[in-house]
Amino acid sequence: MATVETSPGLRADAARNRERIVAAAVEVFAERGLEASTAEIAQRAGVGEATLFRRFPTKDDLVTAIVAVMLEDAATVATSCLEEADPWRGVERFLYEMAERASEDHVISDSTKEQCMASPALAGPRGHVLDLTAQLVRRAQAAGVVRGDIAGQDLMFLMGAVASVSEAPFAGLRPDLWKRYLGIVLDGLRPDGASKLRPGPPPRRLIEHPDGE
Fold first, then answer.
1. What CA–CA distance (Å, rounded) separates 17 from 67?
2. What is the pTM of this model?
3. Which of 20, 56, 93, 137 lies at a CB distance of 3.0 to 4.6 Å from 45, suitable for a disulfide?
4. What's the DSSP call for residue 210?
């Protein structure tokens, strides 16, 4: 007979609590930054702080969980883009959708950037996204629509650069100004008239395993 601790009902409740906490943390961090209190996150999630700390003993654990969800979303978008019949459309759509998401949630994206790029716990999800972006690039290069000196990891940096327009400290800028710079980036990805890029792309190993392991 199953114990209470391992009953399916309890596991389902724990999973729902975890999802609510992560979703609430995304909202609260987006509004208030990483300085927001765990009490506020627990209240937004509709759980007690004790429940939050059982799931996430430290704030870093919570941030890692948020970034894991973000990487999962990126993998889902990239997988869908690989199904585009037009290889160029796949690259274009990936950059557009990811830049749009980052620009809408730039506070949380900026706050979690270091965790996303540096946490050893996220090496697997990072590697999965890099595999998918590499496939997007190679597929487009094989079709002759993306210049040959682009690597999959370049897409991640380009997306971040475009989305960072939303963080510019100037009043009155259009919220969709990032689309202008995405257009420039997309033109730069095409092979026509391309000049040699120096230096080369960042080594993938430094992104996937920034701790050197």
1. 18
2. 0.80
3. 20
4. T
DSSP string, 144-170: T-S-TT--HHHHHHHHHHHHGGGG---
Only one residue has tokens 């989305």, namely 163
Task: Give the dihedral of Cα atoms 12, 17, 20, 21; nearest 10 deg.
Answer: -140
Residue matched to tokens 């963080």: 167
| Domain segments of the chain as ranges | 1-57, 58-208
Helix or strand holding residue 51 (H, E): helix 49-55
Domain 1-57 is found in CATH 1.10.10.60: yes
| Fold observed for domain 58-208 | Tetracycline Repressor; domain 2 (1.10.357)
Dist. CA 9–CA 87, nearest whole Å: 45
- For residues 133 and 94, the answer to whether their CB atoms sit within 8 Å is yes
Only one residue has tokens 């990483």, namely: 34
The Cα–Cα gap between 142 and 96 comes to: 21
What secondary structure does DSSP assign to 81-115, as a single string? Answer: HHT-SSHHHHHHHHHHHHHHHHHHTHHHHHHTHHH
Residue range 110-120, pLDDT digits in tens: 656 665 566 78
